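My current task is to audit a protein record that another person submitted. What it holds is a sequence and that sequence's fold in token form. Thanks in advance; the entry in question is below.
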Amino acid sequence: MKKQLLLLFLILFCASCSSVKKHNEHITSLHTVAALQKDVDKAYTQLKKHHPNINLYIAKERLDFKFDSLKKSIDKPLTSYAFYAKISPVIASIRQGHINVYTPKKQFKRKAYKALIKKDFTINDLDFDYIEKELIVTNIRSQDSFLIGSEVIKVDGQDINELINTYKSRMASDGFNTTLYDRVLGKRFANYYYSDKFFIDSLQITFQKKDSVFNRNFKRIEKDEKQADTIIKDSLQKDIIVKLSKEERKAKKKKEKLIRKHNLVYGYVKSRKEYTRNLEFIGKDSTVAYMKIRGFMGGRYKTFYEEIFKKIDSSKTENLIIDLRDNGGGSLAEIAQLYSYLAEEPYRFLEPAEVNSRIPFLKAFMSNTESTGIKILLGTFSPFIITHNWIKTKKEAGKLYYKFKQTKEVTPKEKSFKGAVYVLINGHSFSASSVLSNQLQANKRAVFVGEETGGAYNSTVAGIFKIYELPESKLKIRIGVMQLETPHKQKPEGYGVKPDYIILPTIKDRKENNDPELNFVLNTIENKNN
């Protein structure tokens, strides 16, 4: 029996190694014209099949022409990455920000993968902003703070302006607003750079700071080595082991438990050393509360909002600032929960979502990107999923609609906040951030400061997603399958939530760590009080 198990293990191990090698060779090799043209057809077929409103911002005839032209433009063999450069601008022309195309990545054998995950790529320590047509470093999570305020000139010898223009052609906001592009380019620049590369182990960036031009090399380093760079150690001093008493051990465990609970509620992100949700009071009298929400995901959000609104109530806070800048969205349930603490009268948060199938969840999850095990599991529970979907999905006027919990009318929380609300938004306020902003603005519940959101005012296609892998190139396409519409609409279609006061940060603001949007609100509150 042992010999049989060993033989089975060796067969699976060899198959895995062969699969890794085959995958890496496939995605870096040239694919035939005919095979890539089939991928174009597959991509368009999947988009039309699963996306509930693919022609909302582009006419069918125009989109047909673009995909037909794409097929004709493929007149020679291409790698997966060269194919990505061709197809991504066509898909971006649909102007639906939740549709994404992902390039295939290098696979590793087990031992190599274990070694890889023990390393950090130092470029990921940098935060960028693209402002006034300059890509600058705004933050760094290491000791090299000199880089803050530096402008990126080149990346591995490539001119930064050429890279920026290329990446812009592959992006889409919801509709016709353009504020998303610069904001997302800054925040996700490294990800866009990785997209058309097979694998990057190191890269060189040319920076400019004042009159000085210099290079910095970034590479993958051991996480232990990285920690050693940030901790000053005395090699002559020996570690001193202090034995704790029973009471001290008990107190230490209690403290650690409280920290873990706090991190869970506030959504601590270890890699970035920051919380997803924060609340602080500005000024000695606590009349102004500032809530920063980086994303509507992770952590126990119900506990968070219950706790912080109790604090706001007990502190007699009169003004609440909600910072949704660079909040790319997340959970529909969370934004509905937050709004319930801000609403002044009964409301409906959403209209029923338009879908293309009576079983949208099963259609989305039964994809060619899922493993055999997941498919078997879904198959086992499919009768329950199908029954649930059929109950929740109704046909009206020839269209299918899925009813969320948030489509019902609800009343605000008993102790909802009654004071003044100010919301900070920018082009990277997207998806769930835009849906929440829509509700607050339509019900005249908040004053908005910043710039137009990247997500559309009227609707967004998200909810759940279908991930489909193209057979030849192995590119993956993410397709939203539910059109989420708010009860409030604006004309013309395809623009975001616009601020009451347009305040835009400058390069000088970023370099001097100045926050003009927040300062504007604080000055407004001060002037109002005076």
About this structure: The first helix runs from residue 2 to 28. The radius of gyration is 26 Å.
